[in-house]
Write a structure and sequence with these properties.
Helices cover 42% and strands 13% of the residues. It is of the alpha+beta class and 180 residues long. It has one domain. One of its GO terms (molecular function) is oxidoreductase activity, acting on the CH-CH group of donors.
């Protein structure tokens, strides 16, 4: 048995403790999860809702192991984003869902998808959720409905990884179009 225990103290709010246990059957290349135990969470009213969300989420990412190039991987992520199963604001509003999604994904062979997923849900939308003003935050709903993918840009020298500096990445402001 593979147990996922989730106890989530969260800055600014205390999330209800969630404990979920899953049986991991290795009868195929992709692990299958079976719900065994459930304790209340803030996002799911009952065990049935949690089971449905888990099954729907795993269905939405079932192509991850075979998405072997950037185009396929991006399409799987767009499909997941459009489902709304994991909202861009779940890092703040439903952290147990946010962390459960990460844990389930970590078991199915992420490859390049893992980087895309964490950039999309952690860095891109996490930064917006944490820093956006009231006129910017609603844009996340529009972006999610369209299945658009975001990015994360570090503009200061030696901020984060140096790969952007190695390849000579720059962000130049175009005053005519008002974009970088």
């Amino acid at each position: 048995m593979f147990v996922l225990a989730n106890r989530l103290p969260f800055v600014g709010r205390v999330a209800t403790k969630a404990a979920c246990a899953y049986s991991l059957r290795s009868t195929s290349a992709v692990p299958q999860f079976t719900q065994l135990k459930y304790k209340s969470t803030t996002s799911f009213a009952n065990e049935g809702e949690l089971n449905k969300w888990t099954n729907d989420f795993l269905k939405a990412v079932e192509d991850v192991p075979t998405a072997t190039d950037p185009y396929q991987s991006s399409n799987v992520l767009r499909k997941l984003v459009k489902t709304g199963l994991l909202r861009f604001t779940d890092m703040r509003d439903a952290p147990e869902k946010f962390f459960m999604a990460h844990r389930m994904l970590a078991t199915i062979g992420l490859g390049g998808f893992g980087i895309r997923f964490t950039v999309q849900f952690n860095l891109f939308t996490g930064s917006i959720v944490g820093l956006a003003g009231p006129e910017q935050l609603p844009m996340l709903d529009q972006i999610q409905k369209k299945g658009q993918l975001g990015c994360f840009l570090l503009t200061e020298n030696q901020a984060g990884v140096l790969s952007g500096l190695i390849v000579g990445t720059t962000a130049d402001w175009d005053s005519k179009t008002q974009v970088y």
